[in-house]
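Journal club prep — side note

Before the paper discussion, L.F. wants everyone to see what a predicted structure for a comparable chain looks like in token form. Sequence:
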Amino acid sequence: MKQIFSILLFTITFISNGQDDNPDFDNLVKLGEIYSGNVMASGDDFKKAVEELRTPGLNHIIDALIAVGEADKKLLTKEFLSKPSEQELKYWYVIREIHYNNQKENSNPRPNAEVAREILEKEIDSRWLLINYYYRIHSGIAKMFNNKNLSKNNFNLEEYGLENDTEKAIFFFSISNSLTERFRVLNMMKNYDKLLQFESKLPSFNGKAYYEYISFDFEDFDYIGYDKTESYKKQHLGKFYLVLNSHLSALAEKDKTDALSHLYFNSILFKPDYFKYSGDLEKDLKKLYNKSSQ
């Protein structure tokens, strides 16, 4: 109820006062346009341009974008990993929609200010807002991990203002994927040593290895991406299974039997309730599970 009240209050404020009277509005639109031209937020020109758009309501967004562009390790602090305010999450969604509006394949783009007004005035699923935020910062985390050893880092999901298992799963998928998505490429390249080298640098989640996170019993929901709507679990658990399978393959190729066994029995590779989300791996997972359960 408190969350619904906050959203309604935020929306009513914008409708009653008008977005043009909002001190953040014009700069938010400009920020969305600048971001759309440089989604990696990289370079001195980007930093200089967004610095000029600072307002109290946009300061944290601009700090985050600069940190993304610089692949700053402070992205892994509570300042940026914690769930932002409702207003900030809505602003990030405006930035997303302006970016989508400006895509070359969009044959009929609308004025960006019109897009911003529409987003600010309508209610948007809080899960979509949170997914979008973590997606916008994930590239900076992925880039930073190229050269950083994060093995001493631990992400305690109770410390980031996440309200339920759904929000915690959104956090986990977003952050872990930015670090482990490369496993799939390295597996296809048969570069198992490099894959395991990256794995050795991974942080822990709630004090355990990334693959031991198995809290995925939340209710599934549809998520609207750029050009399609799909099951959130199907998309993200499917990707997670591919990462786990790549990791498992590398361990098998390097004859690391003990590590392979620990990965298999302590991850969703051994959780049949989730196999339906594993795509092409489902049949093999069922066979392996039946054999290992005998």
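L.F.'s comment for the group: Strands lie at 154-155, 204-205, 222-224, 229-231. Keep this in mind when we get to the figures.
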